[in-house]
Structures are given as C-alpha cells and as structure tokens.
C-alpha cells in the first residue's frame, strides 16, 4: 500500500489453520491419511502464500509461552524448532525474527493498556502450534521473517484489541504480512479421542465453522464460555487475535476443509481482505455498547459496591487509602463480618480477595481493606492499572457465620459457600459461582486453594452470603 509516496505495510491475507503433528508425513508415517482433506487444504494455502511472497508471517499459537494476563512474543533473533517430540528429529525449521516490528507491536499494546512483551519465556524452541503450519508453508516458500505470538487468558475484547495493535504496527512499517492463526477446534469429538466425547464438542465446531463461513467475527467475541470450556478447544483466542488485526476492514472467507478424524476438529480457512469498512469496526461498536452497560451497572450500584469502587479507584490513582466516607447505611458502620471483594473485567475475573472472619472494626473498613487487596495483591493477576478502572465491575459478598457440617450432603452450591480445613490449611469458595455446578467441584476447588491433597482428612463448614452487585 502506498500513500502520498510513503510505503505503508499491510496484512495482505490471513488464515486459520490446525496443528496436528500427525499430518506431517515424517511424523504420521502413513497414519495421516484420514486427515487428507486437511493436508490437501494446507498444500493449497501454502501455494497461495508462495504466490503472495510476503516479507513476514505473523503466527499466533496456543502452545507457546502462555500466561493468564500477559501476551508473550518470542524474543530470539532466530526462531527454530523440530519435531523430535513426535519422533521426527530430522525435520527442522528455522526463521529470522522481525525484532524491529516486534518492538513496535509491544509499544502499541502498551499504549492500549494491554500487557504484552518478551519477558518470561519458558522455552526457546518453536512449539508444534507454530511448527505444523510452518512445515507446510516452508515446503513452498521460505523467504520470510517470522513473529510468533502466544495467546493469553485475557478477555476476548483485549485479545481483539491486541490484534488491532498488530495491524497498527504493521501499517507503520513497510512489511507485506500474512497472518496465520493456529488453533484446533474441539478435542472432544469422539470417545477414542484425546479427551473423550462431549456433545458440546460437535456443537462448538458447527458454530465456529459457520461463524467463519459467514465472516461474522463479532460472534467470535461473544462465544459462550461454558460451551468453549466443555468443548475443549484451543484455537478461539488465536482466531480472535487474527480477527482484531482485520478490524474495520471488509473481508470474505473460504473454509477449505473441516474434519475430525482423530477426535479433534481441524479447520483450514482463508480470509481475503478488502477495503476499509466502518461497519466492521467492532471495537467502536463494542465499546459503545459496553459503556452503556457499565453506566447502567454503576447507576444501580448499592453502597457496598460503590464503596469498593471508590476505594480501589482512589488507591490506584493517588496511592492513598480512603477513610470511611459519610452517608453509609448504619449496618456498614456498626456490624462486623468477613467480606470478599471480587473484580471482573469484560466478564472475566480480575481479582478476588476476602476475609473469612472480620478483621476490621466494621463492614465498611473490611470492604476498604479487601477492595485494595483484590486490585493489587491477588497473586493470580497483575495489579490493576489505572487504564483498566473504567472497565471494572465489582461485587461484594458479606459472609454469614460459618457452621460445621458432617458431609457434602449438607451443601448446596447455590445457597452455601464452603470452607475446607485440614490442620492449619484452610480453603474457601463462595456460593453461586459461574462454572461451579456441583458440590464435588466446589469442595475440590476449595481443597486446591488450601493445598489439601485428595485422601487427606479434612473438615467442612458452610456459610451463606449476602451478595451486593
């Protein structure tokens, strides 16, 4: 692309591809035949990429260095790997990294408030999520540099926005780029598959393949989390990053193949990229709808939640802990109780810290203490940044007094939270949590939080909560 004599980089084509090592002939040794549709589709797109002759391939993969809230980009100047883990150590691939563009992507992500970079690499070789696509591409074309990006367990919108950061960085370069999003669909299509059969597996695959055929990438952002989890997929986040890189552009798609011969869904799809199309600015429309929803939530917050929000926003912006404000209900000032403060961002947990029993003089002080801790001290997450505050949704659980119970028959995942105790180890799980559907799950998670192993003796307590949203 050229604008007023200035050469601008662009993403010229995109693909969604699977990564089963068995389809590499040196690995499969004849067992790859049932996946012939996938292999033929791969050869077709490899020839397309040869004819496009890109300067750079950007590869997203679910099997690199993966973190919950940080997108890792491989930092090595040479990106290499082989198939030794799959019995074919002689099949080796090596590509030059594009460090200059990589650094530009990181700067764009930082400006957008998305944690991304080259820190924390856990392995120095290309994973099979990248190697399988690269094997077929390199069989036809090798004159390209490579940037490998791992997925993260971030909200879908953040992954989509990161894709936009990639596109913005490319536009400021002179690179002609092909974007390859690596990911398998459900791993639960057959009883003899790697994770057995679950009816949600075929359902997920049908939905995703149809979504791609319709080029309706907005649906990728709104896929049901429970369906995705039960389907056992690994490609959605990779595909969402790719979709974000094409935000605001006209697109058309072709699904070259879909099959699941080994109990895992394999889709090969091509995305053709057209001219700018404001109707496909999903970030703008999504942000507008979300801002209206957040305003409605805030307008209806009760004093418990409003106090948690005021506390964390003040602390993040000024570094100061607020005093108990005036005008609070009497029970917040006179009663004492354990309190949990939970934070969500784009529907996903962003922090949760609480106290089983009261540690402060009143419920209001307990909320102030735990709101700060939930936003800055939950070891599962990076501290909340100021740029995230407008996206936070808060809830406050005020705990009733725990009571001992004999066994799990006295539990109810909707009504009661559970406390599991073994010696000095104690784990708590709140009631009525999304994704916790059985008492067995509830107890197991509480045991894991306490570090109590299966088979160890433990006692149970239950408690009720008043949940404020």
TrEMBL record:
Gene3D superfamilies: Hypothetical protein ph0010, domain 1 (3.30.700.20), LigB-like (3.40.830.10). Residues 299-469 form the AMMECR1 domain. One of its GO terms (molecular function) is oxidoreductase activity, acting on single donors with incorporation of molecular oxygen, incorporation of two atoms of oxygen. It comes from the Bacteria. Pfam families: AMMECR1, LigB. PROSITE patterns: AMMECR1. This is Uncharacterized protein, PH0010 family/AmmeMemoRadiSam system protein A/AmmeMemoRadiSam system protein B. It comes from Thermoclostridium caenicola.
